[in-house]
Protein backbone atom coordinates (compact mmCIF):
# COMPACT_ATOMS: atom_id res chain seq x y z
CA UNK A 1 0.00 0.00 0.00
CA UNK A 2 1.20 3.50 -0.76
CA UNK A 3 1.83 6.03 1.96
CA UNK A 4 -1.26 8.21 2.41
CA UNK A 5 -5.00 7.95 1.88
CA UNK A 6 -4.66 10.43 -1.01
CA UNK A 7 -2.00 8.26 -2.69
CA UNK A 8 -4.22 5.24 -2.28
CA UNK A 9 -7.25 7.16 -3.60
CA UNK A 10 -5.31 8.00 -6.78
CA UNK A 11 -4.26 4.39 -7.13
CA UNK A 12 -7.84 3.11 -6.74
CA UNK A 13 -9.07 5.65 -9.31
CA UNK A 14 -6.42 4.47 -11.78
CA UNK A 15 -7.34 0.83 -11.17
CA UNK A 16 -11.03 1.58 -11.78
CA UNK A 17 -10.15 3.33 -15.07
CA UNK A 18 -8.00 0.35 -16.09
CA UNK A 19 -10.78 -2.12 -15.23
CA UNK A 20 -13.26 -0.06 -17.28
CA UNK A 21 -10.92 -0.12 -20.26
CA UNK A 22 -10.31 -3.85 -19.92
CA UNK A 23 -14.06 -4.53 -19.76
CA UNK A 24 -14.66 -2.34 -22.80
CA UNK A 25 -16.67 0.13 -20.75
CA UNK A 26 -16.65 3.90 -21.05
CA UNK A 27 -14.11 5.75 -18.93
CA UNK A 28 -15.91 7.21 -15.94
CA UNK A 29 -18.86 4.81 -16.10
CA UNK A 30 -18.00 3.38 -12.67
CA UNK A 31 -18.39 5.76 -9.76
CA UNK A 32 -16.15 5.47 -6.71
CA UNK A 33 -17.93 5.60 -3.35
CA UNK A 34 -15.22 6.18 -0.75
CA UNK A 35 -16.36 4.37 2.40
CA UNK A 36 -15.35 6.57 5.32
CA UNK A 37 -17.08 4.68 8.16
CA UNK A 38 -15.12 4.66 11.42
CA UNK A 39 -12.75 7.38 10.16
CA UNK A 40 -13.09 10.83 11.66
CA UNK A 41 -13.34 14.19 9.93
CA UNK A 42 -9.60 14.86 10.10
CA UNK A 43 -8.91 11.61 8.25
CA UNK A 44 -11.59 12.28 5.63
CA UNK A 45 -10.65 15.92 4.92
CA UNK A 46 -7.50 15.20 2.83
CA UNK A 47 -9.55 12.90 0.59
CA UNK A 48 -12.08 15.71 0.10
CA UNK A 49 -9.23 18.12 -0.62
CA UNK A 50 -8.00 15.67 -3.28
CA UNK A 51 -11.35 16.06 -5.04
CA UNK A 52 -13.32 13.01 -3.92
CA UNK A 53 -16.97 13.95 -3.35
CA UNK A 54 -18.91 10.67 -3.07
CA UNK A 55 -18.73 8.92 0.30
CA UNK A 56 -20.38 5.95 1.99
CA UNK A 57 -21.28 5.58 5.67
CA UNK A 58 -22.95 2.62 7.33
CA UNK A 59 -24.35 4.24 10.46
CA UNK A 60 -26.83 7.12 10.47
CA UNK A 61 -25.71 8.40 13.88
CA UNK A 62 -22.02 8.42 12.99
CA UNK A 63 -22.68 10.14 9.67
CA UNK A 64 -24.86 12.76 11.37
CA UNK A 65 -21.99 13.57 13.72
CA UNK A 66 -19.30 13.91 11.02
CA UNK A 67 -20.82 15.13 7.79
CA UNK A 68 -22.72 18.37 8.44
CA UNK A 69 -19.39 19.97 9.42
CA UNK A 70 -17.51 18.58 6.41
CA UNK A 71 -20.32 19.65 4.08
CA UNK A 72 -20.00 23.19 5.38
CA UNK A 73 -16.33 23.08 4.28
CA UNK A 74 -16.75 21.26 0.95
CA UNK A 75 -19.49 21.79 -1.63
CA UNK A 76 -20.98 19.04 -3.73
CA UNK A 77 -20.67 16.11 -1.35
CA UNK A 78 -22.91 13.11 -2.09
CA UNK A 79 -23.43 10.81 0.87
CA UNK A 80 -24.52 7.18 0.48
CA UNK A 81 -26.05 5.12 3.29
CA UNK A 82 -24.62 1.60 2.86
CA UNK A 83 -25.57 0.07 6.23
CA UNK A 84 -28.87 -1.36 7.46
CA UNK A 85 -31.56 1.21 8.20
CA UNK A 86 -33.89 0.94 11.20
CA UNK A 87 -37.30 2.52 10.76
CA UNK A 88 -36.78 4.85 13.73
CA UNK A 89 -33.79 6.34 11.85
CA UNK A 90 -35.62 6.82 8.55
CA UNK A 91 -36.32 10.53 9.16
CA UNK A 92 -32.68 11.28 9.89
CA UNK A 93 -31.49 9.15 6.97
CA UNK A 94 -33.77 10.92 4.49
CA UNK A 95 -32.58 14.27 5.82
CA UNK A 96 -28.88 13.41 5.62
CA UNK A 97 -28.23 11.02 2.74
CA UNK A 98 -28.34 11.61 -1.02
CA UNK A 99 -28.50 7.90 -1.79
CA UNK A 100 -29.93 5.14 0.42
CA UNK A 101 -28.51 1.83 -0.86
CA UNK A 102 -30.08 -0.45 1.73
CA UNK A 103 -33.85 -0.45 1.14
CA UNK A 104 -34.74 -4.09 1.81
CA UNK A 105 -38.25 -4.46 3.25
CA UNK A 106 -41.70 -2.97 2.98
CA UNK A 107 -41.65 -1.45 6.45
CA UNK A 108 -38.56 0.62 5.69
CA UNK A 109 -39.84 1.53 2.20
CA UNK A 110 -43.05 2.83 3.81
CA UNK A 111 -41.09 4.91 6.36
CA UNK A 112 -38.80 6.34 3.67
CA UNK A 113 -41.79 7.24 1.49
CA UNK A 114 -43.48 8.96 4.42
CA UNK A 115 -40.36 10.96 5.29
CA UNK A 116 -39.70 11.93 1.67
CA UNK A 117 -43.21 13.36 1.46
CA UNK A 118 -42.91 15.10 4.82
CA UNK A 119 -39.44 16.59 4.20
CA UNK A 120 -39.76 17.24 0.48
CA UNK A 121 -36.41 15.54 -0.06
CA UNK A 122 -35.89 12.77 -2.59
CA UNK A 123 -32.74 10.73 -1.93
CA UNK A 124 -31.99 8.23 -4.69
CA UNK A 125 -32.77 4.64 -3.69
CA UNK A 126 -31.20 1.25 -4.24
CA UNK A 127 -32.54 -2.09 -3.01
CA UNK A 128 -30.10 -4.30 -1.13
CA UNK A 129 -30.21 -7.93 -2.25
CA UNK A 130 -28.95 -10.69 0.07
CA UNK A 131 -27.21 -12.18 -2.91
CA UNK A 132 -25.70 -15.20 -1.11
CA UNK A 133 -28.88 -15.83 0.92
CA UNK A 134 -26.93 -15.55 4.15
CA UNK A 135 -29.08 -15.47 7.29
CA UNK A 136 -26.85 -12.88 9.00
CA UNK A 137 -26.85 -10.41 6.11
CA UNK A 138 -29.41 -7.72 5.42
CA UNK A 139 -31.16 -7.56 2.07
CA UNK A 140 -34.09 -9.06 0.23
CA UNK A 141 -33.61 -12.64 -1.08
CA UNK A 142 -32.75 -12.75 -4.81
CA UNK A 143 -36.02 -14.39 -5.88
CA UNK A 144 -38.06 -11.69 -4.09
CA UNK A 145 -36.08 -8.73 -5.41
CA UNK A 146 -38.07 -8.04 -8.59
CA UNK A 147 -41.39 -8.20 -6.71
CA UNK A 148 -40.09 -5.89 -4.01
CA UNK A 149 -38.82 -3.31 -6.51
CA UNK A 150 -42.28 -3.41 -8.12
CA UNK A 151 -44.00 -2.91 -4.75
CA UNK A 152 -41.66 0.00 -3.98
CA UNK A 153 -42.89 1.67 -7.15
CA UNK A 154 -46.56 0.66 -7.16
CA UNK A 155 -47.42 0.56 -3.45
CA UNK A 156 -44.93 2.94 -1.87
CA UNK A 157 -44.47 5.38 -4.74
CA UNK A 158 -40.68 5.03 -4.64
CA UNK A 159 -38.52 5.06 -7.76
CA UNK A 160 -35.78 2.47 -7.23
CA UNK A 161 -32.73 3.17 -9.38
CA UNK A 162 -30.78 0.01 -8.82
CA UNK A 163 -29.53 -2.84 -6.67
CA UNK A 164 -26.75 -3.27 -4.14
CA UNK A 165 -25.12 -6.44 -2.81
CA UNK A 166 -22.34 -7.76 -0.59
CA UNK A 167 -21.27 -11.25 -1.77
CA UNK A 168 -20.34 -13.88 0.84
CA UNK A 169 -16.79 -13.41 2.13
CA UNK A 170 -14.18 -15.96 1.09
CA UNK A 171 -16.06 -17.01 -2.03
CA UNK A 172 -15.47 -16.08 -5.64
CA UNK A 173 -17.63 -12.96 -6.09
CA UNK A 174 -18.03 -13.31 -9.86
CA UNK A 175 -21.15 -15.54 -9.84
CA UNK A 176 -22.79 -13.22 -7.29
CA UNK A 177 -22.00 -10.12 -9.34
CA UNK A 178 -23.40 -11.92 -12.39
CA UNK A 179 -26.57 -12.82 -10.50
CA UNK A 180 -27.13 -9.22 -9.38
CA UNK A 181 -26.63 -8.08 -12.98
CA UNK A 182 -29.23 -10.61 -14.15
CA UNK A 183 -31.76 -9.56 -11.50
CA UNK A 184 -31.26 -5.91 -12.42
CA UNK A 185 -31.89 -6.66 -16.10
CA UNK A 186 -35.05 -8.63 -15.25
CA UNK A 187 -36.21 -5.88 -12.92
CA UNK A 188 -35.49 -3.03 -15.30
CA UNK A 189 -33.20 -1.03 -13.02
CA UNK A 190 -29.94 0.45 -14.20
CA UNK A 191 -27.61 1.03 -11.29
CA UNK A 192 -25.51 -1.69 -9.69
CA UNK A 193 -23.57 -1.02 -6.48
CA UNK A 194 -21.15 -3.92 -6.05
CA UNK A 195 -17.46 -4.44 -5.41
CA UNK A 196 -15.41 -3.46 -2.35
CA UNK A 197 -11.69 -3.12 -1.54
CA UNK A 198 -10.93 -6.78 -2.22
CA UNK A 199 -12.93 -7.27 -5.40
CA UNK A 200 -13.97 -3.96 -7.00
CA UNK A 201 -12.09 -4.66 -10.23
CA UNK A 202 -13.96 -7.93 -10.65
CA UNK A 203 -17.34 -6.15 -10.36
CA UNK A 204 -16.60 -3.89 -13.33
CA UNK A 205 -17.03 -6.48 -16.14
CA UNK A 206 -20.37 -7.46 -14.57
CA UNK A 207 -21.73 -3.96 -14.97
CA UNK A 208 -21.07 -2.27 -11.62
CA UNK A 209 -22.02 1.40 -11.88
CA UNK A 210 -20.51 2.13 -8.48
CA UNK A 211 -17.96 0.42 -6.25
CA UNK A 212 -17.72 0.95 -2.49
CA UNK A 213 -14.10 1.10 -1.39
CA UNK A 214 -13.11 1.74 2.23
CA UNK A 215 -10.00 0.14 3.68
CA UNK A 216 -8.04 0.24 0.40
CA UNK A 217 -8.26 4.04 0.65
CA UNK A 218 -8.46 4.90 4.34
CA UNK A 219 -6.51 1.94 5.73
CA UNK A 220 -7.50 -0.86 8.07
CA UNK A 221 -10.45 -0.10 10.33
CA UNK A 222 -10.09 -0.30 14.10
CA UNK A 223 -13.67 -1.64 14.42
CA UNK A 224 -16.13 -3.21 11.95
C1 LIG B 1 -17.53 -1.30 4.99
C2 LIG B 1 -18.30 -1.51 3.76
C3 LIG B 1 -17.68 -1.39 2.50
C4 LIG B 1 -16.20 -1.11 2.33
O1 LIG B 1 -15.46 -2.24 2.68
P1 LIG B 1 -13.89 -2.33 2.35
O2 LIG B 1 -13.62 -3.78 2.29
O3 LIG B 1 -13.20 -1.63 3.47
O4 LIG B 1 -13.68 -1.65 1.07
C5 LIG B 1 -18.46 -1.55 1.37
N1 LIG B 1 -19.78 -1.82 1.47
C6 LIG B 1 -20.41 -1.95 2.65
C7 LIG B 1 -21.87 -2.22 2.67
C8 LIG B 1 -19.70 -1.80 3.83
O5 LIG B 1 -20.34 -1.92 5.00
UniProtKB/TrEMBL annotation:
Keywords for this protein: Pyridoxal phosphate
Database matches in CDD domains: PLPDE_III_YBL036c_like
Cofactor dependency: pyridoxal 5'-phosphate
Modified residues (N6-(pyridoxal phosphate)lysine): 37
Ranges for domain Alanine racemase N-terminal: 9-222
Gene Ontology molecular function: pyridoxal phosphate binding
Protein family: Belongs to the pyridoxal phosphate-binding protein YggS/PROSC family.
PANTHER family tied to this protein: PROLINE SYNTHETASE CO-TRANSCRIBED BACTERIAL HOMOLOG PROTEIN, PYRIDOXAL PHOSPHATE HOMEOSTASIS PROTEIN
Protein's job: Pyridoxal 5'-phosphate (PLP)-binding protein, which is involved in PLP homeostasis.
HAMAP family: PLP_homeostasis (MF_02087)
Protein known as: Pyridoxal phosphate homeostasis protein
Native organism: Aureimonas flava
